[in-house]
Design goal:
InterPro entries: CHP02452, Macro_dom-like. The protein is of the alpha+beta class and 83 residues long. 37% of the residues lie in helices and 12% in strands. The chain is built from three helices and two strands, in the order H-E-H-E-H. A two-stranded parallel sheet has the order 1-2. Helix 2 links the parallel strand 1 and strand 2. Helix 2 runs parallel beside helix 3. The termini are far apart.
């Protein structure tokens, strides 16, 4: 996950569309995947790198619900510094 974010930043991408890594045919537990994304995206290294991130989740059932509930209110853009 960190490598994906670093590659995007190195290529000056500020708006990302990411997939539900491993949650489809590989059947990784969506809650574990979203928990990992949440931890990584809140790390100091990645603060302010991106304007926004969208997760493209094809499943409109359980996986979508888990991604939404875990990540929908996560802020990835740093607030503007106050003067």
């Amino acid at each position: 996950m960190r490598v994906v974010l670093r590659c995007a930043a190195d290529n000056h991408h500020r708006k990302l569309v990411l997939g539900a890594l491993g949650c489809g045919v590989f059947a990784h537990p969506a809650q574990e995947v979203t928990d990992c994304w949440k931890v990584v995206l809140q790390e100091k290294e990645f603060r302010g790198w991106f304007e926004y991130i969208v997760f493209a989740v094809l499943d409109t059932g359980e996986n979508y619900t888990i991604f939404w509930n875990t990540l929908h209110d996560l802020t990835v853009k740093s607030p503007r510094p106050e003067h």
